[in-house]
Design a protein that fits this description.
Shape: globular
Strand order of the largest sheet: 3-2-1-4-5
Number of domains: 1
Order of helices and strands: EHHEHHEHHEHE
Radius of gyration: 14 Å
CATH topology: Rossmann fold
Number of helices: 7
Distance between the termini: 19 Å
Helix content: 55-70%
Number of strands: 5
Structural class: alpha/beta
Strand content: 5-15%
Length: 137
């Protein structure tokens, strides 16, 4: 089982978010016990911004056993298709392309996406299973 992880979950854990850290850490552990954890370059870059030093970031990702998983052409096209549907349906620019790239990547290379942003992803990536650390079991 391959789980793609969204930035919000990693920042919850690595930044010790007072509201979400515990639930996100438990969800990460559960996903890791079932297989691999991957993050695309968007998640990698967004998460790295919370660290003052690149080595500290790399060490943290190593401890989580999260693997860097670059975007594929299929993932980029899937993201673009969803972005077009979103904008055609009247979607504002509140949702940026990065959100679509994260889900497009997960759709192409993973079995599921670990995120707290389930409503948006479920709407535009309906075939992608979502694991939400804040959802009741």
């Amino acid at each position: 089982m391959i789980t793609a992880v969204d930035t919000n979950v990693l920042i919850d854990v690595l930044g010790a978010d007072p509201k979400f850290a515990t639930a996100s850490a438990e969800a990460l552990r559960r996903c890791l016990s079932e297989g691999a954890l991957v993050a695309c370059e968007v998640v990698w870059a967004e998460t790295a911004t919370v660290f003052d030093d690149a080595e500290l970031f790399k060490d943290a990702m190593d401890r989580l056993t999260a693997s860097f998983s670059p975007m594929t052409e299929e993932a980029a096209v899937t993201a673009a298709d969803a972005w077009r549907r979103y904008r055609a349906g009247g979607g504002s620019r509140d949702r940026i392309a990065a959100d679509f790239l994260i889900a497009g990547h997960a759709s192409a290379v993973a079995d599921r996406l670990l995120t707290r942003d389930r409503g948006f992803y479920r709407k535009y990536f309906s075939g992608l299973p979502i694991v939400d650390p804040t959802a009741p079991d």
